[in-house]
Specification:
- The protein is built from 14 helices and 22 strands.
- By secondary structure, it is an alpha/beta fold.
- It folds into 3 domains: 225 residues, FAD/NAD(P)-binding domain (3-Layer(bba) Sandwich); 111 residues, 3-Layer(bba) Sandwich (FAD/NAD(P)-binding domain), CATH 3.50.50; 113 residues, FAD/NAD-linked reductase, C-terminal dimerisation domain (Enolase-like, domain 1, 2-Layer Sandwich), CATH 3.30.390.
- The strands form 5 sheets. Strands 1, 2, 3, 4, 5, 6 and 17 form a 7-stranded mixed beta sheet that branches.
- Helix 1 packs parallel to helix 9, helix 3 packs antiparallel against helix 4 and helix 3 runs parallel beside helix 6.
- Pfam families: Pyr_redox_2, Pyr_redox_dim.
């Protein structure tokens, strides 16, 4: 006999597990179906983000930054270190420990909130009366059948394949393979200069690899404000040492026994490069494989996304979808907030998500973060604006940290002074951007931040100074 629930969430990533917890908090009998398994073959909640994405990449970034600091930065503090070595195996063990702790934490939260944790691949099979039927399989065998009044689809995304190139996670790697390299390759190639490419390229460059990034777009970080993007390009190529080539047309990719050869063209010139490992990171696609969308008439658009309205409701009754599988930025925090919002809508509440105030972060060194409109977007939209910038070079806290590279840029409406966008490259930009998000959510002006007292010495003073500069009254610039 089928198990019956008020809400069944398909997918246990940042959108799904949060949606399940919130639904349970609101009094719904809730189950979450998730198929992810760790390298040991055991169920592991948290989806791509926790298992082979956001969390493990940050662990490796921190390890590589520590190793780099020992070699290059500690001497300035009077700390002498000789013979420093990197044990990649220990680094990976630490990473896996962090994943395990977080995945276990989600399982604990499920128990605490009485969410039924169902392992397997969930597929829509139709309706029986007012309930949806979900069949759960594991390794092809049916392990459970669930019925639900409401279904929340949170199936995430998968790496976009490069035509004609097979990912074996031995020589040719996707994000999972890039996070599991057991030794530092001498020559690492990366196709794509997005978040994954830049972060993984940075990790292995700091650990000794020669890293070449091949990007099809002629513009670096096209989604970011170009003043910040240009500074990032200069810093990542000059200081980090990444070889980033733009406007590349990828040709044939040949896999040998121990290396990968990539033929490509740039500015009309044909080139070829041989790598010990090649990471393919050219974006991600919504994951609807095996979901049973066609069988129940779930509408999927031409790009493969589940079609939803502004409330994340699909074309089917009591069926919702959130996160990477629907329109909007493929960001874990966006998925989580959509999951919360859907659970609350099922309960009759009226939550709101402002897509103009979702922060973006790239965890390179220095970090890159932004929220709101870029200067290019404002020009294209014909919006009159004013801007203020300030650098970390004269900031006492940044100098003390030895991280004084970078800039904060504030864009505000020329007439109302309302903040339209904030763009940062610098130390802990991922943390600093939060103040900008709060400011935009409360419709703050640049003067509001300029008149708020910021702790001294702190990195936040650079945002304060940029807002002063927007009004042409910078104190330290």
């Amino acid at each position: 006999m089928s198990q019956q629930f008020d809400v069944v969430v398909i997918g246990g990533g940042p959108g799904g597990y949060v949606a399940a917890i919130r639904a349970a908090q609101l009094g719904f009998n809730t189950a979450c179906v998730d198929a992810f398994k760790n390298p040991e073959g055991k169920p592991s909640l948290g989806g791509t983000c926790l298992n082979v994405g956001c969390i493990p990449s940050k662990a490796l970034l921190q390890s590589s930054e520590n190793y780099h600091a020992v070699q290059h930065d500690f001497a300035a503090h009077g700390i002498s270190v000789s013979g420093a070595k990197m044990d990649v195996g220990t680094m990976l063990k630490r990473k896996e420990g962090i994943i395990g702790k977080n995945a276990g934490g989600i399982a604990f939260l499920f128990k605490k909130n009485k969410v039924a944790n169902v392992h397997g691949l969930g597929a829509l099979k139709g309706r029986t009366g007012e309930r949806w039927v979900i069949e759960v399989t594991d390794n092809g065998a049916v392990v459970d059948t669930l019925e639900a009044t409401h279904v929340i689809l949170a199936t995430g995304s998968t790496p976009r394949p490069l035509p004609g190139v097979a990912i074996d996670n031995n020589l040719v790697l996707d994000n999972a393979g890039a996070l599991a390299l057991t030794a530092t390759p001498k020559r690492l190639g990366v196709i794509g200069s997005g978040v994954i490419g830049l972060e993984m390229g940075s990790v292995w460059k700091r650990l000794g690899a020669e890293v070449t990034i091949l990007e099809a777009m002629p513009t670096f970080l096209a989604a970011a404000d170009q003043q910040i993007a240009k500074e990032a390009f200069k810093t990542l190529t000059r200081d980090t040492g990444l070889d980033i080539q733009l406007g590349v047309k990828i040709g044939e990719i040949k896999t040998g026994k121990k290396s990968v050869t990539v033929a490509y063209e740039i500015n009309g010139e044909k080139k070829s490069a041989e790598f010990d490992k090649l990471i393919v990171s050219i974006g991600r696609l919504p994951n609807t494989a095996g979901l049973g969308a066609e069988a129940v008439g779930l509408q999927i658009d031409e790009r493969g996304f589940v079609v939803v309205d502004d409330n994340c409701h699909t074309n089917l009754p009591n069926m919702w979808a959130v996160g990477d599988v629907v329109r909007g930025p493929m960001l874990a925090h966006k998925a989580s907030e959509e999951g919360v919002a859907v659970a609350e809508r099922i309960a009759g509440q009226k939550p709101h998500i402002d897509f103009n105030a979702i922060p973006w972060v790239i965890y390179t060194s220095p970090e890159i973060a932004w929220v709101g409109k870029t200067e290019e977007q404002l020009k294209k939209d014909g919006i009159e604006y004013k801007k203020g910038t300030s650098g970390f070079a004269a900031n006492g806290r940044a100098l003390g940290l030895g991280m004084a590279a970078g800039t904060v840029k504030v864009l505000a409406d020329a007439k109302t002074d309302r903040i339209l966008g904030v763009h940062i490259i610098g130390p802990f930009a991922s943390e600093l951007i939060a103040e900008a998000v709060v400011a935009m959510e409360f419709a703050a002006s640049s003067e509001d931040i300029a008149r708020i007292v910021h702790a001294h010495p702190s990195l936040s003073e650079v945002l304060h100074e940029a807002c002063l500069a927007a009004d042409k009254r910078a104190l330290h610039g």
